[in-house]
Amino acid sequence: MAIEDMPDVGAPPVREPAPTAQVADPGPLGLAAFASTTLVLSFVNAGLIDKSVELSTVLALALFYGGLVQLLAGMWEFRAGNTFGATAFPTYGAFWMAFALYVGVLADTVPQAQQATATGMFLLVFTVVTGYLTVASLRTNTALTTVFVLLFLTFAALTTGELAGVDGLVTLGGWLGIATAAAAFYASFAGVLNATWKRTVLPVGSPR
């Protein structure tokens, strides 16, 4: 046998590239994480539960469920090719992580007379981002658009209330936040239920 006819036993076997695995929709997870943290903080802002809850339950949720889980959901949205979700979920995941750091650690470094302004400026940034995400959401579905319209109104009320020193607007923001959380829970429930049952059980409205 000629040398050139001998098999190359040292070469690794040739393997066909594996097909791209389907990525499950991370939207319901991200929406559930967002809704849960928003609901508890909104109960505080609406005056339905004591503000001391903010330094325990809210901050724990903000770090892990509202923060870390939304951040992960956003990374999976990148993998799924969803630019809207890949922008929205990391934005609000980072919001909740920054909120936990601000309220739990940094707020005490701000003079008392300037704390409302500091909080208002913190909220203003996310009001702006939520504003253009709301415009983009008009091309998604009715359920998601409802979440973003309510969220924009929530941020607008809270921001104005803090900067103008109007407690009634902060309370209004709390009630709007509760409505936002309810809409997000519905969108999350519809997403996971419809995907699991493989048919439309809960409608979310047609994409535009």
From TrEMBL:
<keyword id="KW-1133">Transmembrane helix</keyword>
<keyword id="KW-0812">Transmembrane</keyword>
<feature type="transmembrane region" description="Helical">
    <location>
        <begin position="88"/>
        <end position="107"/>
    </location>
</feature>
<protein>
    <submittedName>
        <fullName>Uncharacterized protein</fullName>
    </submittedName>
</protein>
<dbReference type="GO" id="GO:0005886">
    <property type="term" value="C:plasma membrane"/>
</dbReference>
<dbReference type="InterPro" id="IPR051633">
    <property type="entry name" value="AceTr"/>
</dbReference>
<dbReference type="InterPro" id="IPR000791">
    <property type="entry name" value="Gpr1/Fun34/SatP-like"/>
</dbReference>
<feature type="transmembrane region" description="Helical">
    <location>
        <begin position="29"/>
        <end position="49"/>
    </location>
</feature>
<feature type="transmembrane region" description="Helical">
    <location>
        <begin position="142"/>
        <end position="160"/>
    </location>
</feature>
<feature type="transmembrane region" description="Helical">
    <location>
        <begin position="172"/>
        <end position="193"/>
    </location>
</feature>
<dbReference type="Pfam" id="PF01184">
    <property type="entry name" value="Gpr1_Fun34_YaaH"/>
</dbReference>
<feature type="transmembrane region" description="Helical">
    <location>
        <begin position="113"/>
        <end position="135"/>
    </location>
</feature>
<keyword id="KW-0472">Membrane</keyword>
<feature type="region of interest" description="Disordered">
    <location>
        <begin position="1"/>
        <end position="20"/>
    </location>
</feature>
<feature type="transmembrane region" description="Helical">
    <location>
        <begin position="55"/>
        <end position="76"/>
    </location>
</feature>
<dbReference type="GO" id="GO:0015123">
    <property type="term" value="F:acetate transmembrane transporter activity"/>
</dbReference>
<comment type="similarity">
    <text>Belongs to the acetate uptake transporter (AceTr) (TC 2.A.96) family.</text>
</comment>
